């Protein structure tokens, strides 16, 4: 897939922007805070239905405006498709595909993008919600209908948790709360589908993750990933990763776990079992990345997760490679890792790189460099070179 052209209106710091992109590598160069990442964020949003920097949509809309507009022309081989998205500060977003109205959740069917940014270090070092978010965004790209499953699960979870809080306030015992059984059925059905999809995803990522890590780090440290599931007895959200034995389907395990913890759930007013409590355990050298890996190893794992995601989507897609975005990455890497990363990504159909200093990006990726300044796309860097003082943070 190739993004041929991007148009923005009232997105982040852009009143208006027009950006043409070429196949192969494209580099956006400019001082920090000028809007390079905002362009990358807009492209990635079409594929993931979310920002890699904020959890809500309101910050994406320019100050003083009610909505932002993102328009992208994509090429899938000889076929062209235009995606349009209206991001509203309040209310549901609106979307069109080649002029026809669609639900916003349909956009990932047409756009595949993998973005790596410094914030991704939190995937390996942050709390479990960061890893769940990573997995779920990739699931939506891999299986677009999972966006609906995740949304329905979250809605059911909120309603069930509201009921638990009400029961706690009224002092209702679990045996007297028959309404909870109805919500349990919905929670188990939707949650089991999400758990099973996540487990399959981790299995399918294992090989690409090991290859990507070796490609970037230059070493084989045996990176691995495995889900710790709350339906198996522990509470990964609170650091309890123990996994008890026992067979049966995911739905069987889910129901049994809910029954075992019902009294505790009512006492706390929380739903303590389900995919919202699970954690993706990442390891190198047989040890957890979080708490044991060095800074360099953590960076390599985070980057390898994104590269493995791109390889997985590439292998399964009939529409070509996903667009690979590397946001402010090369400045964080030593010369060896820069060169190895450039070699790993060089054969993707399209790569978008952002950098404060063009020379941080290996020469083989600098074929098309554009200068960005104060929410404006100025054009080729050769026509608008940055002065030495302009590279300061």
Please identify the top-level CATH class of the largest domain. Answer: Mainly Alpha
Count of discrete domains: 2
Mean pLDDT: 90
Which value, in Å, is the CA radius of gyration? 22 Å
Largest sheet: 6 strands, antiparallel
Any idea of the CATH topology of the largest domain?
Glutathione S-transferase Yfyf (Class Pi), Chain A, domain 2
> Can you tell me the overall shape?
globular
Beta fraction? 15-25%
> What is the count of β-strands?
17
Low-confidence segments, given as residue ranges, are 387-393
- Structural category: alpha+beta
Commentary on this structure:
The protein has 393 residues and is an alpha+beta fold. α4 crosses α5, α4 packs across α7 and α5 packs across α9. The chain is globular and about 70 Å long. The chain is built from ten helices and 17 strands. The protein folds into two domains: 186 residues, P-loop containing nucleotide triphosphate hydrolases (Rossmann fold, 3-Layer(aba) Sandwich); 198 residues, Glutathione S-transferase Yfyf (Class Pi), Chain A, domain 2. The strands form four sheets. It has a six-stranded antiparallel beta sheet, with helices on one face. The protein has a six-stranded mixed beta sheet with strand order 8-14-15-3-16-17, sandwiched between helices. The RecF protein is involved in DNA metabolism; it is required for DNA replication and normal SOS inducibility. RecF binds preferentially to single-stranded, linear DNA. It also seems to bind ATP. This is DNA replication and repair protein RecF. It is found in: Cytoplasm. Belongs to the RecF family. Keywords: ATP-binding, Cytoplasm, DNA damage, DNA repair, DNA replication, DNA-binding, Nucleotide-binding, SOS response.
């Amino acid at each position: 897939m190739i993004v041929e052209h991007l148009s923005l209106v009232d997105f982040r710091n852009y009143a208006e922007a027009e950006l043409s992109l070429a196949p192969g590598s494209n580099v956006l160069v400019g001082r920090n805070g000028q809007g390079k990442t905002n362009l990358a964020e807009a492209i990635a949003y079409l594929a993931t239905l979310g920002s890699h920097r904020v959890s809500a949509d309101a910050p994406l809309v320019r100050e003083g405006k009610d909505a932002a507009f993102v328009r992208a022309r994509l090429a899938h081989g000889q076929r062209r498709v235009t995606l349009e998205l209206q991001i509203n500060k309040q209310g549901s977003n609106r979307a069109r595909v080649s002029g026809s109205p669609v639900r916003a959740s349909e956009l990932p069917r047409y756009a595949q993008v993998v973005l790596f940014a410094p914030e991704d270090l939190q995937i390996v070092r942050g709390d479990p919600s960061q890893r769940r978010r990573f997995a779920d965004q990739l699931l939506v790209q891999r299986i677009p209908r999972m966006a609906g499953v995740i949304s329905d699960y979250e809605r059911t979870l909120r309603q069930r948790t509201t009921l638990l809080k009400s029961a706690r306030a009224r002092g209702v015992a679990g045996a007297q709360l028959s309404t909870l059984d109805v919500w349990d059925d919905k929670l188990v059905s939707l949650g089991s589908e999400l758990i099973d999809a996540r487990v399959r995803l981790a299995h399918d990522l294992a090989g690409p993750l090991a290859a990507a890590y070796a490609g970037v780090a230059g070493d084989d440290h045996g990176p691995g990933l495995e889900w710790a599931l709350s339906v198996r007895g522990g509470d990964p959200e609170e650091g309890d990763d123990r996994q008890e034995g026992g067979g049966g389907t995911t739905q069987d395990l889910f129901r049994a776990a809910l029954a075992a913890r019902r009294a505790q759930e009512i006492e706390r007013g929380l739903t303590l079992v389900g995919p919202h409590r699970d954690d993706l355990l990442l390891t190198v050298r047989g040890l957890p990345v979080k708490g044991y890996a060095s800074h360099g190893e953590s960076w390599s794992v985070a980057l390898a997760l994104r590269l493995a995601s791109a390889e997985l989507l590439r292998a399964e897609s009939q529409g070509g490679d996903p667009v690979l975005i590397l946001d402010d990455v090369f400045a964080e890497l030593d010369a060896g890792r820069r060169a190895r990363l450039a070699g790993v990504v060089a054969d993707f159909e399209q790569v978008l790189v952002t950098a404060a200093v063009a020379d941080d990006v290996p020469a083989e990726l600098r074929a098309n460099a554009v200068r960005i300044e104060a929410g404006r796309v100025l054009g080729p860097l050769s026509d608008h070179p940055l002065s030495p003082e302009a590279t300061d943070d």
